[in-house]
Amino acid sequence: MWAYSGIESATVPAEEVEAPDSTIRSGTLLGYALATLIFLLSATAVVGVLPNDAIASSARPVEMAVRQVLGDRAGFLVSICAVCASIGVLNGWTLMVGRIPYSAAEDGMFFRRLGRLHPRYGTPATSLIIGTAIASVLLLLYFVPGQTTLKVFTFIVLLANLGTLFPYLYNAAAALMLARRDPDAWPAPVRRRMQAMAFVCFAFLVWSTYGVGQEVVFWGFLVLVAGVPLYIWFKTTARSA
Question: Which segments of the chain does DSSP mark as H helices, in order?
Answer without folding.
Answer: 20-49, 52-57, 61-70, 72-106, 125-138, 149-181, 188-211, 214-240
